Structures are given as C-alpha cells and as structure tokens.
C-alpha cells in the first residue's frame, strides 16, 4: 500500500554531487487540499552558476567515457527507478494532483525512457561522405557540453526524463530546473535516483526555485555562456520567450509546447471505440496534457449517436481528492489554473455556448465539462484550455473537418476515426500537426518515436535517434590521402 500521509525528506538542491541548501525555502502544496507537501529550496542565480560550473567540469570525462559505459549507466538509472517507483507514484498523486492510475502509468513509462536513451549509445554517430579530391571524409556527431533542462509539472516523470535522458546518453552534462509546482517529483527525486545509480558528480544537477525566482534563475540557465543548449517543455508563451533568448545567443533549443488538439469522428467510425477514446483523451489527468483532446469534430450523420455514447461515459467520472482512488478527476495543479479554466468556460457560455455536461468549479477542481455551440468568437476555441473541458463541433464534409482542425495556431497532435483506413490516412496527412493517429485518441507517446509539433506547438523532436539533432553537433572531419591538388603558383 502506498503511503501518502507524510511528505518526502528534502535534502537540498543537487549540485556537483552534493546536497546543497538554499538561503530560503518555499512551500510546495498538495493541490487536492492546499496542505503542505514539502518545503523546497528556493535557488538563486548564483546556485545556477554553481551548477553550470559543476556540469562544465564534469563534461570532459563524461563525454570521453566509452559509449557502452554510458549505456550501462542509463540502464542502471532505469533499474533504480523501477525499484523505487512507488515513491514516485506517491509524489505524482500528492504533489502533482494526479489520479493513482496516471501515476502508475507514468512510473512504468519513465524507466523505458532511460532504456531507450541507452540504445542511442549504440547508434550510428555519423556518415562517411564521398570526396571529389579523394579524401576520407566524415560527418560525425559530438556532444555539445552543458545542457539546461526546464521541465513542466503535468507529467513530471515522463517529461523530465525525456528532457535529459538522451542528452546524457550522447555525452552531455545537465542542469535541471523542475517546475515550481512539482519540484520534488520532477527534479529532486531524479537527483536521488541518479545519485543511487552512481552517476558521477556534476554530470546531473538540480536547482529548484519558487515562482518568484523563476525569471532570474531561468535567464541564467539560458544565457550563461557555458550552456550550449536548452531543452524545454511547457507553455507556448514561455517557450517563445526561451527560444527567443536562445536564438539571440545562437544556442540550440528543443521546445515542446502547447496544443489545441482535435479528434475527428467520421460517419463510418466505430462510435463505441471513438466515445471511449474521446473520454480518455479529453479528461485524462484533468486535461492537463499537451496532447489532450480539446476539440471533438463529429460528422453530422453520427453526431447525435456519438454524443449519447460519449456523454454517458463522461458522466461516470468522479471528481475529488486524489487520496480516494475512485476520483479519476483530481484537482488542477493550482487555484490560478482552476480560475483560468473556469473563466474560459464562463466566457464561452456568455457568448452562447451550451453546457452539455459539467461546468462547475470549486477550490482547485473543475468537473468534466462538455460544451457545444462553440464558435471562433470564443476564447476557448483558440486558447489551450489545459483543463477537463472539451468542445464538440459538427461538420459536414472531410474538407470541412480538416479546415476546422487546422483553424488554430497550434499543431501538436490530431486523431481521425474511420473504418476506412485509406480515407482516414488521407485526412491525417492534411492535418497541420507533428503527430496524427488513426482510430486512437490524441494522448499517445512512446520513448523511441519523433515527438513534437509544428506551428506554435514547438521546434525540434524528442525521442529515439531524432533526439540527436537537439543534443549533438555535427563536425566535418577529413583525412587527406594525397588527392587534393593546388594551383601551381602555390
């Protein structure tokens, strides 16, 4: 039985292999009831500089380690994580406000992120190129150096590990700043895991800070001259800011941002399957997933039948404190986010939307909500909700469905339901998204796939060999064998 009666022991930030206190702390709250979960070190720009210095000092030895040794180290991390995963589930429930089932899924996924990253150590790291001068020429990948990782609160296990596992695998060192809403599950807990796994001091560092300190701390993580790349997962607004700063310093930035993702239900779809998938995609983790289904686009001929099946499932979802595992819908991460989601609902209703289900909010909770009669004059049509709210819109033709899907600045995921796979694939290829799924919902991920979006949903890809573009640089190296000629005058 998992114990949620007491918070974790917080030993400090993790810098250069040592647990380091900060000058002050901040309160980390359980969003189900706003009770104290833990007191967290409130790091400063000087703490970040110390972490970057430690990472820089550790880089040469880590980068020069034989590739198979780095692979073994990542596999050891995965093994330690698996032994201790119940601790993470406790944190994901109590600190992150997640349903127990969500915590179990995330805990099981994270170890595979490290195992997948370990495989990168055995990948092809370059190519041999032809030369018109008879040279032996290679394009070879090398690690960058220190990578800053800024991770989110909604999936603190998966999205934190994904942000740095590949970077470590190819020989970089890391400074991680987790979200101030999940600084333990998304940061300090990882430091414990990597310390136990024997990762050398300085290779992995964690600096935590409060919301009030995040601007100053984040600027150092991006602008410090010894940081060579930034890995960020979070909101589009913050991602734009980070990418702009990184660009000003000519640094690589892999940023995975928000979404306004649609599921298209065609008139030949399996409606029971689509309704079940829509229920999961819309309300899993209170809709606090970048891939959440925020729009259901349903063809006219099956609209009423689909809605009957969908709403009957959604009505069964219970909302409440995550200490009760029957409450599949827990709190939003904080009251600020809950107020924002309720304001989007209220704006839509004031402009003519119909509440088919839910609509109520209290404390940090918003119950599962389904809105119809939504149009582009309403904020909720354009803005990422990041809450347990989905809008449902009718369409007539396949072309209309594609147009409705693409009517957004975002482009992360899309989903299409049809028994005609050829028809569904034709639509999927027209969606302006980095990811599209046929006969499944929007929330899909695997550690080895190219994960990322287009338009305002981000730049770059995480996962598998595609992570190499974010965390390595290519160098052209040649070996001349006497074939290069020069003009006689020289």
UniProtKB/TrEMBL annotation:
- InterPro entries for the chain: Ald_DH/histidinol_DH (IPR016161), Ald_DH_C (IPR016163), Ald_DH_N (IPR016162), Aldehyde_DH_dom (IPR015590)
Q: Which UniProt keywords apply?
A: NAD, Oxidoreductase
Q: Does the keyword NAD apply?
A: yes
The Aldehyde dehydrogenase domain covers: 19-477
Could you tell me which SUPFAM superfamilies the record lists for this protein? Answer: ALDH-like
Work out whether the entry's keyword set contains Cell division. Answer: no
The record ties this protein, via PANTHER family, to: BENZALDEHYDE DEHYDROGENASE YFMT
Which family does the entry's similarity section mention? Belongs to the aldehyde dehydrogenase family.
Protein name stated in the entry: Aldehyde dehydrogenase family protein
Q: Which organism is it from?
A: Psychromarinibacter halotolerans
């Amino acid at each position: 039985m998992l114990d949620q009666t007491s918070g974790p022991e917080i030993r400090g930030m993790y810098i250069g292999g040592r647990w380091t206190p900060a000058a002050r702390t901040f309160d980390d709250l359980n969003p189900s009831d706003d009770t104290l979960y833990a007191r967290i070190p409130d790091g400063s720009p000087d703490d970040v500089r110390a972490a970057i210095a430690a990472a820089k000092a550790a880089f040469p030895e880590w980068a020069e380690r034989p590739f198979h040794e780095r692979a073994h180290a990542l596999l050891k991390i995965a093994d330690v994580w698996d032994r201790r995963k119940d601790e993470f589930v406790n944190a994901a429930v109590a600190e992150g406000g997640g349903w127990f089932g969500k915590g179990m899924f995330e805990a099981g996924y994270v170890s595979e992120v490290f195992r997948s990253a370990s495989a990168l150590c055995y990948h092809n790291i370059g190519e041999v190129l032809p030369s018109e001068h008879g040279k032996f020429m290679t394009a070879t990948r090398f690690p960058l150096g220190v990578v800053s990782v800024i991770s989110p609160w909604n999936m603190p296990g998966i999205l934190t590990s994904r942000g740095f596992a590949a970077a470590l695998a190819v020989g970089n060192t890391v400074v991680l700043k987790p979200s101030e809403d999940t600084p333990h599950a998304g940061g300090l807990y990882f430091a414990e895991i990597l310390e136990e796994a024997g990762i050398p001091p300085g290779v992995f560092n964690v600096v935590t800070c409060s919301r009030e300190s995040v601007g100053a701390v984040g600027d150092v993580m991006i602008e410090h001259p010894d940081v060579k790349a930034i890995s960020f997962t979070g909101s589009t607004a913050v991602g734009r800011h980070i990418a702009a700063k990184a660009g000003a310093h000519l640094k690589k930035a892999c940023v995975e941002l928000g979404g306004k993702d649609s599921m298209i239900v065609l008139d030949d779809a399996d409606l029971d399957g689509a309704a079940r998938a829509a229920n999961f995609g819309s309300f899993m983790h209170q809709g606090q997933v970048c891939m959440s289904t925020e729009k259901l686009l349903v063809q006219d001929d099956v609209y009423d039948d689909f809605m009957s099946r969908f709403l009957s499932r959604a009505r069964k979802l219970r909302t409440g404190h995550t200490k009760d595992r029957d409450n599949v819908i827990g709190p939003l991460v904080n009251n600020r986010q809950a107020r924002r989601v309720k304001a989007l609902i209220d704006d839509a209703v004031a402009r003519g939307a119909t509440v088919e289900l839910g609509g109520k909010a209290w404390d940090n909770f918003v119950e599962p909500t389904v809105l119809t009669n939504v149009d582009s004059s309403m904020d909720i049509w354009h803005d990422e909700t990041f809450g347990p709210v989905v809008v449902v819109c009718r369409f007539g033709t396949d072309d209309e469905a594609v147009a409705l899907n693409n009517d957004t600045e975002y482009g992360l995921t899309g989903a299409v339901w049809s028994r005609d796979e050829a028809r569904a694939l034709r639509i999927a290829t027209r969606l302006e998204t980095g990811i599209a799924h046929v006969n499944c919902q929007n929330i899909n991920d695997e550690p080895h796939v190219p994960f990322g979006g287009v338009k305002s949903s981000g730049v770059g890809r995480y996962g598998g060999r595609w992570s190499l573009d974010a965390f390595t640089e290519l160098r052209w190296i040649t070996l001349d064998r006497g074939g290069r000629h020069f003009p006689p005058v020289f």
